[in-house]
Amino acid sequence: MRLYASRVPMIAQEVVRHLVDKQLIDVAPENINEVELDAESVLKEYLRAERQLTEQAKDLAHERGLDYSAHQKIKRQLAERAKFGLYEDAVGYIANQLIETFLHTRHVDEIFAADNELRSAIAPLIRRQMSSGDELDAEVRKRIKNLQEGTQDWEIRYQQTLERLKVARGLTDE
After folding, report:
1. Where are the alpha helices (DSSP H) in 22-151?
2. Looking at residue 1, what is its pLDDT?
3. CB of 75 within 8 A of CB of 86?
4. Any idea where the domains of the chain sit in the sequence?
5. In whole angstroms, what is the distance from residue 63 CA to residue 43 CA?
6. Other CB atoms within 10 Å distance of the CB of residue 166
7. Backbone phi, then psi, for 134, in 5-degree steps?
8. What is the pLDDT of residues 1-13, one digit of tens each?
9. Contacts of residue 15, Cβ cutoff 8 Å, sequence gap at least 6
10. pLDDT: is 20 or 65 the higher one?
11. Model pLDDT, residue 6
């Protein structure tokens, strides 16, 4: 699962509107955009922190003389130490961060649901948006099946193919 920067505004809007429509939170109509911006800031911070972990993991792998495949394991270890949700834990982590933001922002007038109820409403929306990355990964792997996974050629071709597909589908990270 992967969160794409290009989808952040859409996800934030969908989450806030869903919670308001289900009457789980109360937001004055003039504050809806502000709450959506609060949600966007959570998602953007998640992306920033994930990029930082990726860079740290790559640097550590390089310092230790490990190959590219080791950086994912190092990234997972760094995330666990920082109590940061990656991969399958990302949805729950992001949902918790959104709930915290809704509890503390002055733009949400009232919260009518318990945390677990909010999480149950938010998680499927995030999961659906992030799962498109799984489909993308499968498509890339299908296109480069002639290369041996784990080799430098495979990694390079994977990234190139992934970037082309993201551009074609409007899923750019920046």
Report:
1. 32-63, 70-82, 90-104, 115-143
2. 67
3. yes
4. 5-131
5. 30
6. 18
7. -65, -40
8. 678 787 899 999 9
9. 39, 98, 122, 125, 126
10. 20
11. 76
Determine the pLDDT at residue 150. 62
Query: What's the mean pLDDT in 9-20?
Result: 95
Poorest-confidence range of 37-51, 108-122, 145-159? 145-159
Left (φ > 0), alpha (ψ -120 to 50) or beta: where does 65 sit? Answer: left
pTM, two decimals, is: 0.77
3-state secondary structure of 22: coil
Do residues 35 and 102 lie in contact, with contact meaning Cβ atoms separated by under 8 Å? yes
- On whether the CB atoms of residues 103 and 111 are closer than 8 A, the answer is yes
Residue type, 88: E
Do you know the residue count of the chain? 174
User: Exposed/middle/buried for 104, CB within 10 Å: 0-12, 13-18, 19+?
Assistant: exposed
